[in-house]
């Protein structure tokens, strides 16, 4: 088994005939078998050896990633058609016993390698998905400053604030507050809250706050900042 001397015209002719009905040295994808044979060739095959030249140019495109190609690189004499002497290592012509030994696949078939690669890929994807699932999701939040205005200067602002803070919703946390003069003895309640964007919006806050119509004349958003 082998191609003979791949630096000679006769060896390249054997390679060309071998590749007349194949895309690769072994299997159906580029592998270390192609790398081993490619590295044994000193120059591109001549144009009249079209199959070998086509294969050579194709494998050359994998030069930057050749180390990552599948398979295990074997001695050059273990590739190619049977009955060709392996002149690359000074070995004698192939005997019947050698041919029998070649029938023993020491490195597994391409199908076994493909199955192993698929299994490893699936294991890595499963591990990544499990890691992703354990990672807590980022909750989008906003800090909102509200201006709550009373009807007049006789409105009980302590009661107004009590009403506002009585609003409890999932995703809503009330913060600091203060009374701000607006003129004519009237003060507005300025109160901060932090909300989860997916659960609480300014529309529902305005709806809830203005329901206390005995105290609240209107509500405005003074500031809105993403956290």
UniProtKB/TrEMBL annotation:
Keyword Ligase: no
Coiled coil: none
Keywords: Elongation factor, Protein biosynthesis
Molecular function (Gene Ontology), one example: translation elongation factor activity
Region called Disordered, residue ranges: 67-107
Residue ranges, compositional bias (Acidic residues): 98-107
Cellular compartments per GO CC: cytosol; eukaryotic translation elongation factor 1 complex
Statement: the UniProt record of this protein carries the keyword Transmembrane: no
Listed PROSITE patterns: EF1BD_1, EF1BD_2
Residue ranges of every copy of the Translation elongation factor EF1B beta/delta subunit guanine nucleotide exchange domain listed in the record: 141-227
Domain Elongation factor 1 beta central acidic region eukaryote residues, every copy: 106-132
InterPro entries membership: eEF-1beta-like_sf, EF-1_beta_acid_region_euk, EF1B_bsu/dsu, EF1B_bsu/dsu_GNE, Glutathione-S-Trfase_C_sf, Transl_elong_EF1B/ribsomal_bS6, Transl_elong_EF1B_B/D_CS
A Pfam short name: EF-1_beta_acid
Gene3D superfamilies: 1.20.1050.130, 3.30.70.60
Family to which this protein belongs: Belongs to the EF-1-beta/EF-1-delta family.
Function: Catalytic subunit of the guanine nucleotide exchange factor (GEF) (eEF1B subcomplex) of the eukaryotic elongation factor 1 complex (eEF1). Stimulates the exchange of GDP for GTP on elongation factor 1A (eEF1A), probably by displacing GDP from the nucleotide binding pocket in eEF1A.
Protein name (record): Elongation factor 1-beta
Gene giving rise to this polypeptide: EEF1B2
